[in-house]
Amino acid sequence: MDTDKQLKKYELDFRDYGYILLKRKHIIIFSMLLTALFSFIFATSKTPVYQSSTSIKIESSEEVKNMMMSAYSYTPYMALFSELEVIKSYPVMELVAKELGYLDPELTSSEIRASENYLELLKSIQDQITTELDETSSIITITITSADNELTKKLANTIARVYQKYRRQESIKRTTEAKEFISRQLDKAEKTITDAENKLTELKEKNSLFAVDDEIKFTSARLMNLEVDLKDSIEKKSDILFSISQISKSGPEDSFSRPYSEGTGSALGTLNSKLLELVLERKRLPIDYTSEHPQIKIIDKQIKDIKDEMVKELKNQLTGILYKEKSLSDEIKLLTSKGGEMTSLQREALAYERDIKINEDLLSFFKAKYQEVQLKETEQIEEATIVKMAMLPTSPLGDKTKTTVLLGLIIGLVFGVIIAII
């Protein structure tokens, strides 16, 4: 009993612990301040990184491309996706470096690309840029990451302005090229018509105003149309065979910007859009994923299945083209045998009349296109509009100084209490 009483005498209750902590509070305070100081030094020793972003809305403008009669087939998303790379391209970076005063404005692109130092400068600017596309709104966000907070704002806004100007100049260039191309075609068509009319008139005058009967004219016109259709079928067949070979030998990361397709909205066009989405998804996967990773294998299997479907669809189209080609060839042979009844003068006259008719159609077509180009020049639509300017970042990216110091205070408190009690 005496022993138990002695032990209870030396036991400490909460009041005793509180008295000890109060008496040794300087130890606790010192521990907290020390750990907080080390935490602050650790947090601020890292180089701060800042980010600032600007946004550009891209307006679709395909009129001039259509005026140039481009045979390419691509989706609006693919066109916008390519702009992500254009923004970071060397031509744009050269203009940005000149705008910021990093390069002499008088330097040419050839001189810049011939210098390793200049190329390193452009590469350093590129490395600070991240571009992202919002598919739903056609808005591209340009983000700059740098240790200099003022540079992030300045560089982001400069890139946006330079890209806007660059796209405007490219639009003017495309319109000018289209206008020149159409003008040349107009002159060529007018000259061909004039020459054909003069030769036809001369031929008729020399041969006493002979005439070609309607049946022969119809046969000749039909033969000409068949020859045009046959040529078109042969070209389509060549496109299909080329597309099949390209798809068959391509890897899982390859897509096709313009596989042969009979019109927009076709089954092949739908398959190609799905293929593009899968290829983009595969490229977004972490680079440390190997080809044996389950997610990679699933996407590769889906890509292979779509390519197999594309080849199957192309072969179906090829079968139809081959059948059409045989039918056209047979009809051409039949009409050619009938054409033997025409005299050489009649054939020559019909050839001139065909040239006149074809070039008159071309003349009407190019006149309409020329008016479209002139309208395009008048509109002067801004294809790239800055919808959000970059702001000066006030705090570093992922700044955790306050959190780190607070954690240091808590750890210091724990250690201080333990030391004070011991």
Q: State the order of secondary-structure elements, H for helix, E for strand.
A: HHHEHHHHHEEHHHHHEH
Distance between the termini: 29 Å
**Strand content bin:** 5-15%
The number of helical runs is 14
Overall 3D form: elongated
Largest sheet: 4 strands, antiparallel
What portion of residues is helical?
Answer: over 70%
Question: Mean pLDDT across all residues, rounded?
Answer: 77
Q: Enumerate the spans where pLDDT stays under 50 for 5 or more consecutive residues.
A: 62-75
CA-atom Rg in angstroms? 38 Å
Number of strands: 4
For the largest sheet, list the strands in their spatial order.
2-3-1-4
Q: Structural class from helices and strands?
A: alpha+beta
Description:
- This protein has 422 residues and is an alpha+beta fold.
- 71% of the residues lie in helices and 7% in strands.
- The protein has helices at 2-10, 14-23, 25-45, 63-67, 76-87, 90-100, 109-113, 116-127, 149-206, 214-249, 267-284, 294-338, 344-379, 401-421; strands spanning 50-58, 129-134, 139-146, 384-388.
- The chain has a four-stranded antiparallel sheet with strand order 2-3-1-4.
- A hairpin with a 4-residue loop joins strand 2 (129-134) and strand 3.
- Helix 3 (25-45) runs antiparallel to helix 14, helix 10 (214-249) packs antiparallel against helix 12 (294-338) and helix 11 (267-284) runs antiparallel to helix 12 (294-338).
